[in-house]
C-alpha cells in the first residue's frame, strides 16, 4: 500500500485496487460438484469409488499483485496478478464497469479482450463476473483488515447448475520495520 492512510474499507475502485497490491500468502480451498481432471486433487488418480475427499482440495501459495494507475481516461487502473505457478494475468478495470484481461505484460489497456464486469459494493467488496467456456463465474473479493483479504468464487454450468466453488484467505506479507 502506498500513499497516506486511505479510508478503510476502500470506497473507490482505484483505492480498492491499490489496497490489493502486495505479496499475499494464501490458502485456497476448491470444491467441485463433479470432479474433473482440472478440479480433482492431485492424488485423485488413486481415489477409489468410496473416496469422500475427491470433491475438494486445498493448496497454499503466494500471489503477487501489482497495481498500475490508469493510463487512459477509459480505465480506472489495472492489476497484474502473478500466481504461484508463475503465470501472470493483467486485469484492466474500465470506467464503464467492464473488466478486460491481458496475458502477462503484453499489449495495452485498449487492446485487452473483454473478460466480464466489475462492481464495487457499498460494503467495500469487489465483485467480478463473466463467462468462460460456456460457464458463468462470479468472484467476490473483500478485506476484513488492510492485510487480510478474502476471496470467494462460484462457477455455474450453462444449465445454471453449480459446477465449482472456491474460497481463499490471504495474508499480506509485510517486512519488519
Protein architecture, described:
The chain has one helix spanning 13-20, and strands at 22-32, 56-68, 75-82, 88-94, 98-103, 114-120, 126-132, 135-145, 148-156, 162-172. With 177 residues, it is mainly β. Strand 7 (126-132) and strand 8 (135-145) form a beta hairpin. The model is unreliable at 37-49 and 104-111 (pLDDT under 50).
The percent range for strand residues is over 45%
Assign the structural class, choosing from mainly alpha, mainly beta, alpha/beta, alpha+beta, or little secondary structure: mainly beta
Strand order of the largest sheet: 1-2-3-4-5-6-7-8-9-10
Order of helices and strands: HEEEEEEEEEE
Question: How does the overall form come out from the CA principal axes?
Answer: globular
Q: Ranges with pLDDT <50 over ≥5 residues?
A: 37-49, 104-111
Task: Considering the chains and any ligands shown, give keywords for the structure.
1 helix; ten-stranded antiparallel β-barrel; single chain; mainly beta; 177 residues
Short overview:
The protein is built from one helix and ten strands.
Topology:
Blueprint: H1 13-20, E1 22-32, E2 56-68, E3 75-82, E4 88-94, E5 98-103, E6 114-120, E7 126-132, E8 135-145, E9 148-156, E10 162-172
Antiparallel strand pairs: 1-2, 1-10, 2-3, 3-4, 4-5, 5-6, 6-7, 7-8, 8-9, 9-10
